[in-house]
């Protein structure tokens, strides 16, 4: 009997901060595609956010660890935050493939990101290295025109109209962020005074 190859979900994001929209997306895709594990990969220096302030990577990494700790199938990788220079997904997938040659990779991303996939660095290599799963995101229409149909899937998830931008704005304005992000992340934000002076 041939053994089924491991299936590794890859959830890349700035996670500034991680919120329940990210966690629901990962959980739903894991169930639909029978993934053995989902690795969350906080970006180091996002190439497309060079003109906006991003919280230091260690804070974003630790919040991601706290948010995923209770799920035995969720893990967190430092590959993007430990690699010098700008973060590109092709490097993420190369590093993860070297670490996990036994696994097929499923990159999980939102409807807003999928529309831009062809403009990502080395996009042809991206489709060789991973399948892409585009999850619906409130307010964004899925546009998969021009993408390889055998490597890109869509999956509808329960709409959670949460964004990191909104969480940062609420924290800055002294509004509650309970239940938008995991409890431990609420406490981490308060303990470290994150987003107080943010421009969101
Ligand atoms: N509520 C949500 N539902 C589904 N997918 C989401 C949701 N929020 C974010 N995503 C997806 O998760 C991935 C990582 O998102 P990211 O860390 O940039 O969070 P964000 O909420 O989009 O942040 P920001 O508001 O700062 O741009 C992206 O592909 C994004 O589309
Ligand atoms: O590789 C690229 O060129 C590229 C361009 C834009 C976004 N990405 C990746 O898409 C993921 C989601 O990005 P974001 O901005 O929604 O947090 C994250 O893992 C980024 O590294 C990657």
UniProtKB/TrEMBL annotation:
Q: Among its keywords, does the record have Transferase?
A: yes
InterPro entries the UniProt entry points to: Cyt_trans-like (IPR004821), NadD/NMNAT (IPR005248), Rossmann-like_a/b/a_fold (IPR014729)
Pathway listed for it is: Cofactor biosynthesis; NAD(+) biosynthesis; deamido-NAD(+) from nicotinate D-ribonucleotide: step 1/1
Keyword list, A-Z: ATP-binding, NAD, Nucleotide-binding, Nucleotidyltransferase, Pyridine nucleotide biosynthesis, Transferase
What is this enzyme's catalytic activity, as reactions?
A: nicotinate beta-D-ribonucleotide + ATP + H(+) = deamido-NAD(+) + diphosphate
Q: Which family does the UniProt entry place this protein in?
A: Belongs to the NadD family.
The record's annotation in HAMAP family points to: NaMN_adenylyltr (MF_00244)
Q: What is the protein's name according to its record?
A: Probable nicotinate-nucleotide adenylyltransferase
Can you name the source organism? Answer: Cellulomonas triticagri
Q: Which gene encodes it?
A: nadD
């Amino acid at each position: 009997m041939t053994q089924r190859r491991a299936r590794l979900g890859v959830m890349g994001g700035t996670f500034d901060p991680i919120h329940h929209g990210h966690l629901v997306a990962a959980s739903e895709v894991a169930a639909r595609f029978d993934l053995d594990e989902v690795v969350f990969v906080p970006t180091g220096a996002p190439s497309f956010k060079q003109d906006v302030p991003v919280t230091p990577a260690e804070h974003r990494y630790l919040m991601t660890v706290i948010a995923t700790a209770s799920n035995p199938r969720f893990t967190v990788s430092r590959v993007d935050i430990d690699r010098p220079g700008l973060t590109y997904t092709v490097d993420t997938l190369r590093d993860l493939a070297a670490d996990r040659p036994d696994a097929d990779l499923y990159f999980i991303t939102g409807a807003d990101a999928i529309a831009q996939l062809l403009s990502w660095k080395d996009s042809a290599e991206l489709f060789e290295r991973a399948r892409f799963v585009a999850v619906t995101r409130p307010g964004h229409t899925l546009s998969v025109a021009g993408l390889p149909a055998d490597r890109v899937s869509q999956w509808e998830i329960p709409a959670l109209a949460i964004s990191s931008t909104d969480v940062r704005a609420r924290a800055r304005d002294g509004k509650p962020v309970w239940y938008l992000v995991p409890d431990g992340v609420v406490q981490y934000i308060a303990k470290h005074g994150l987003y107080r002076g943010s421009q969101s």
